[in-house]
Write a structure and sequence with these properties.
With 510 residues, the protein is mainly alpha-helical. 72% of the residues lie in helices and 1% in strands.
Length: 510
């Protein structure tokens, strides 16, 4: 094994492949940082460039783009409170507040380092436990996926700080919006109102760009003529290293290991991906934290959980791709196409028939992660300089980039109007004090829950008990019930605490 890995590093450190990896990571970071541009778009645009390259060089370039774009989303998520990619949604929850407090450099440094750690841990999982994990993931069917989706949806309550009712409403609204378009299984048109453009529903990127980017632009535009604030100036002071101490780094190791495990596990499951894993890891980190009240106000725990998990999904997504030939998301689907273009057929026999190439892929992942760390560390000072750009100049540029990214998804003007519509909705959420995260969770998990539920009923011939009698599905549904009960008990306890603390008010005025 180690001989093959050394041979793989030997291939990667050839001048051609190393330069391709460096360029691929740099381009990927840019695509990840610009709202609306994603790893999918970066790989799709660069795929034709690999036709004239050898298998090792071509696949290394695509992997470098994947790694760079996944991590690049943290830049705009922290500096602009706009997730560059779906995998950086949760990074905005604490990265943005840290930037506003003058800790933008620290948030970026934390995100960069733990993105690297998450990627390396997932590559280790890919190398050592890939076949076993892939077989377990393959055993999951519609019943299991439905139960996982239901359990994940119950976690909305954790992100509904301030008002449980508002959080649940936002989650239900997100679920409802996800039902627009052609229904799964029976292909019935729903809520399209005769508009052909709505048949495919709303793309997750248009929703994200609208709810986060355009809404943030509208909100900030209210004070766009104000000079750069003291907090932003504080973020531009001289940065030492990555901006955080060794004690802070060591204190986040348990959080990082837990988030990496979640990222790898969720990344293996087809159709879920980093867009979900970063939010779930954030929720789990909040539940396990000694100071959960700091989440959403600017704590490095939230940034660590999100960025470790989304990058850990890289290795997780590669596990079923290489061992079973099953792509788990759009990125790995394009990577599968790239492999097949070069005459590589992923599957169980790949490790036996083309072992050197497999370990070249592993080496390319490791080198890409290291180059991502180096390039983002080098660019850390440049990223912070973005804060010096006057808002009335920066905001129109961001809006144009958002529109270009939305149009690039399907070459439709309709998608530009979509991001503007969701931008107004996101701004309404801000004014009403409603959390955006539950809406996004409902939108992402809604289709998976509905499709899995209907397919599960087909398999069990209409018997609802199939979801309960299935061991894995039954366990997750039981956890969902426990989670709801725990949240309700916590709400009841918090409601009684002020009254109990002041017994003079219990009986009213005397």
């Amino acid at each position: 094994m180690f001989d093959l890995l050394l041979q793989g590093f030997g291939n990667v450190f050839s001048m051609q492949i190393f330069l391709l990896i460096t360029a691929g990571v740099a381009v990927g970071i840019v695509f990840g940082a610009v709202p609306g541009l994603t790893a999918v778009m970066a790989i799709a645009l660069c795929l034709p460039m690999t036709y004239g390259l050898g298998p090792a060089a071509g696949i290394s370039l695509l992997i470098a783009l994947f790694v760079g774009a996944t991590s690049g989303g943290l830049i705009s998520a922290i500096l602009l409170k706009i997730p560059g990619t779906p995998s950086s949604i949760a990074t905005t929850f604490d990265g943005g507040p840290m930037m506003e407090k003058g800790e933008g450099a620290k948030a970026l440094g934390v995100g960069i380092v733990f993105s690297f750690i998450g990627t390396i841990i997932s590559i280790g999982a890919l190398m050592f436990i890939a076949p076993t994990l892939a077989r377990v993931a393959l055993s999951f069917g519609p019943h299991e996926y439905f139960a996982i989706a239901v359990f994940s949806l119950t976690l909305i309550a954790t992100l509904s700080s301030g008002s449980m009712a508002k959080g649940i409403f936002a989650g239900v609204l997100g679920f409802a919006v996800s039902t627009v378009g052609i229904a799964p299984v029976d292909a019935t048109a729903r809520f399209t109102f005769g508009q052909v453009e709505l048949n495919a529903g709303f793309n997750i990127l248009t929703v994200l760009v609208g709810m986060f980017a355009v809404a943030e632009i509208i909100k900030v535009a209210e004070t766009s003529r104000n000079p750069i604030g003291d907090s932003a100036k504080a973020a531009m002071v001289r940065i030492k290293g990555f901006g955080f101490s060794m004690a802070e780094f060591l204190g986040q190791i348990p959080n990082a290991l837990r988030s990496a495990a979640l990222g790898v596990s969720i990344g293996i499951l087809p159709g879920i991906g980093a867009g979900t894993s970063n939010i779930i890891s954030y929720i789990v980190a909040k539940k396990r934290s000694k100071t959960p009240e700091q989440f959403g106000k600017g704590t490095i725990e939230g940034v660590v959980a999100s960025e470790t998990a989304n990058n850990a999904g890289i290795g997780g997504a590669m596990i079923p791709l290489l061992t079973l030939g099953i792509p788990g998301d759009a990125v790995t689907a394009i990577l599968l196409g790239g492999l097949m273009i070069h005459g590589i057929q992923p599957g169980p026999m790949l490790f036996l028939t083309q072992g050197p190439l497999v370990y070249t892929i592993f080496a390319a992942l490791i080198v890409s992660a290291v180059m991502m760390l180096i390039l983002e560390f080098w660019g850390l000072r440049i990223f912070i300089r973005l804060l010096a750009i006057p808002k009335h100049i920066l905001l129109p540029v961001i809006l144009v980039l958002c529109a270009v990214g939305a149009f690039g998804l399907g070459s439709r003007v309709f998608d530009i109007w979509t991001i503007l519509g969701f931008g107004v909705l996101g701004y309404a959420f801000v004014k009403a004090g409603m959390p955006t995260a539950p809406f996004i969770i409902g939108f992402i998990l809604g289709p998976m829950a509905e499709t899995s539920f209907r397919r599960g009923l087909q398999l069990s011939r209409g018997d609802y008990m199939g979801f309960v009698t299935n061991p894995i599905a039954g366990t997750f549904l039981a956890l969902a019930v426990i989670s709801i009960a725990w949240q309700l008990w916590g709400e009841w306890r918090n409601a009684r605490r002020p009254a109990a603390a002041n017994p003079l008010k219990l009986g009213g005025e005397e």
